[in-house]
Design a protein that fits this description.
By secondary structure, the protein is of the alpha+beta class. It has helices at about 1-25, 30-40, 45-50, 60-70, and strands at about 95-100, 105-110, 120-125, 140-145, 150-155, 155-160, 165-170, 175, 185-190.
């Protein structure tokens, strides 16, 4: 009985990992064959991992994290959730973290997984941090400034947003900068998910 329960928990963890991996791969615009080639693995192996039928080793997870540009811990963070909460609730201490303080932007995934039609991210912009060069992604995005100030460029327009302000844009070139001397916290919604 105990072994069967452990097997079920392990199978569920493999399913979640596979779903997240598939979502990340698609968000990066990669086919199974392209990702497998970059990893030096077979398409069959990668397909089994995405379907939750195979469990990748730690070296495979490191390679996946590097190719998909996420920290290794991204694949583990929500494992501590209670079984009845998985897929529904993310507790403060179990958020998946993206980015690092050296880049001036640390993000936490507030969504329970990457399987929905959108994701919610908590972004913390360090004082003086700025996006190195304008970016564009095929998404619709919206956000709410919780605290601090954020200069947001959308296309040729520039906006200074402060606590309580919100924004939305779709498939536009954007840039950001924290002009203040305190961190700026923004809750960011992105559709479809990109992480």
């Amino acid at each position: 009985m105990f072994q069967a329960a452990n097997r079920t928990i392990e199978e569920q963890a493999n399913q979640r990992l596979g779903q997240d991996l598939r979502s990340l791969r698609k968000a990066r615009g990669l086919t199974l064959a392209e990702l497998a080639l970059r990893l030096g693995r077979s398409v069959g192996w990668l397909s089994q991992v995405e379907r939750g039928l195979s469990e990748p080793g730690i070296s495979d997870l490191r390679a996946l994290a590097a190719v998909l540009e996420v920290p290794l811990g991204f694949f583990f963070a929500n494992e501590a959730a209670l079984p009845e909460e998985q897929g529904f609730v993310v507790r403060r201490g179990n958020r998946r973290t993206l980015g690092n303080t050296q880049d001036g932007l640390v993000e936490e995934l507030l969504s329970p997984d990457l399987g929905g039609s959108f994701e919610i991210v908590r972004s913390v912009f360090a004082p003086g941090a700025a996006l190195a060069k304008p970016a564009r992604r095929p998404t619709e995005e919206a956000g709410y400034v919780v605290s601090g100030a954020l200069e947001l460029g959308i296309g040729a327009k520039r906006f200074l947003l402060e606590a309580g302000d919100s924004f939305r844009f779709k498939n536009e070139t954007y840039s950001w900068r924290n002009p203040g001397d305190e961190p700026c916290i923004v809750v960011w919604i992105v559709a479809p998910p990109i992480y």
